[in-house]
Amino acid sequence: MLAGCYHADTPAGSPCTSDADCPGGQTCAAQHCSLEGSVVEDAPAVADAALDAAIVRDARPLDAPAPPPLIQYKSTRSAYVLQNAPAPALTIVRPDCANNAVMVAVIAMGSTGEATLPVYTAPPGWTLVRRSDRNTDSSLAVYTRVYFNEPASYTWTFDVPIEGIGWISCYLNVDKTDPVDVEIGGPIESVGPTYSAPVLTTTKPNELALAIIIAHTTLAAATTWSAPTNTTQRINFSNTTTRSGTQGDRPLPNVGSTGAISTTASETQDYAIGELLVLRQAP
């Protein structure tokens, strides 16, 4: 844009004797007004506030990594030992899983009226999270293991023949170096069909709570369980008579309480043992 405008009646090329005869911005050259040599400036930029406000700015750097994937359930396999055919071992087939995933094993065995608790011996590579005992009648043991080129099955052995149930679940995208954030468990000394898992407070976001309830009944009937509240039920299992259990999991996107989780059996139970375990997301 020109710094000045020339008069319409004195266009460029008009006769002149000096610059004073030419309108602003023109010079007198060879006795004619000329734009050559005049100063030309761009008009100052005018800020468009509306356009500037419409620009969406992403605070995340362009090279920021994507957030880690959420924990996902893969599969569960189970096995049982009959009440009328106690055994010194329990073998569970390997679940469908993937390398670097984390497996959680639940072993719930016992024998009513025994003088002492049975000794559990886990297969190599399994880490005990917690064992909860109810008198000398029943024990619930929970283990973890990182899946990598696994055998076809796993066998837990006991020092005496006992009965019960067990299962192994596979979860993807779990922190394999430190899979458990928080956990708690213990016997529940109440008769009735409904039992609740303990409540915990988590320390990290995007975790997964596993609620586990196992129980014993003297009724000669197979027990089934409702899905633990606000969870996806992964197993509902019994040894066809005295011992049974269930497991459900619940995503925990935010740090805080795991909330109340309860489940109801189809038959009256003599007692139960509960466990709440929170898996940590892989970094």
Topology:
Elements: E1 27-29, E2 32-34, H1 49-54, E3 72-81, E4 87-93, E5 102-110, E6 120-121, E7 127-134, E8 138-146, E9 153-172, E10 180-188, E11 192-197, E12 207-216, E13 232-238, E14 243-252, E15 261-269, E16 271-279
Antiparallel strand pairs: 1-2, 3-9, 4-9, 5-8, 5-9, 6-9, 7-8, 10-16, 11-15, 12-14, 12-16, 13-14
Number of strands: 16
Total helical elements: 1
Number of domains: 2
Radius of gyration: 38 Å
The H-and-E topology, N to C, reads as EEHEEEEEEEEEEEEEE
Please state the structural category: mainly beta
As a percent range, the share of helical residues equals: under 10%
Largest sheet: 7 strands, antiparallel
What is the end-to-end distance? 58 Å
What integer is the average pLDDT?
A: 88
Q: What would the principal axes of the Cα set say about the shape?
A: rod-shaped
Strand content: over 45%
Uncertain segments: 1-10, 39-43
